[in-house]
Amino acid sequence: MMEDKSGVFHVMEENQVDVQITQAKAQPQQADNHRPNWSNGQCVVAMPSCSMLNPSFDLSLCRAKLENDGFQIPAGDMEAPLKTALDVPSVRRYLVFNSALFHFILAPMLYVVLWCAVFSTLHLYITVSDYWVLCLSVSLVSIFLTTAIIFILHYSNKEINMNIDIRLIQVNERLVKHKLLVAVADWVQSCTGNMQLYFVFWDISRCLSALTETLEERSFVENDTQIKLKRKMSHLVLVTEDAAVDSEVEGSDVDSSEQRPLLRHADTGRRTSSSRHEGAKVTTNYNLIPDVALPAQAKAYQLLMTYSAAYVRLLVSERLSGPSHYQLQPRRNHCSTGHLCLCQYIKNKILR
């Protein structure tokens, strides 16, 4: 999947996927000579946010640090896509209100609001001789409701994030050629927020082979696999505004492999009479479910890229669900720092 200037993700053809996979496997020899022996899951660079109220990252400094570690990444493969994905006012606001620090501050405020609401309600309908019994009951109810809401918010952060993780797909598609994956993670440490942009070393070749093998083994139950994908990924829908294309031009290019979208259309927005004018926009929905007609390798690559940012975010924040660190790691684990690698995470999350 790649994002064009209008912000639309397009799925690559099979030959394009093969080219990307080949590039991911073959790294320039000059960069390898100066690069340490990295292993999958190791953090190469962690760049903290410049401000918690206006999250932003010094991408030029990130690139300089990566170059010091032997990663020669062009600006078009890192800085430009990251600015497109993260340097947007609405995304910055979302990072603030969805941060762990905001949830940390929200908890006591939510408790006070709930306590006042429950007390004012019960005080009108329940007459208690002992005032402290009413206060204790209200406090217990408020603690329960606050804990439930904070738990729901915490659990939602373990899922794939439409506003951040999905926007980083196009970035990871470029960085995976340089054996890197990127994600934004944050947590509270010593009562202060810790939001950082993480660059993690990852050689996708082994995960790609393992996931492709799994999908090929499931080929005899392809309908069951597709049903699972639809059930687990049906909410991953991108709503984009495409530049209106004249019907004559659209008809002439309908069979062009460069123009045909990789993501199939979940629902095409309605066109108005003004869509024929220059500069008009058409709202279109794209889903991220791999097309059933794609080969196993292309499906595996699309799944790996879709969940790459979510996996890295959970990996660096140590929130991956799985066996204890003290137990033996599962077989075929391609990650040296976690108990689950990317392909195993997808198998457990999507294919199980």
UniProtKB/TrEMBL annotation:
Keywords: Membrane, Transmembrane, Transmembrane helix. The chain crosses the membrane at residues 100-125, 131-153. Residues 264-279 have a biased composition (Basic and acidic residues). It comes from the Eukaryota. Residues 249-279 are annotated as: Disordered. InterPro entries: DUF4481 (IPR028054). This is Transmembrane protein 268.
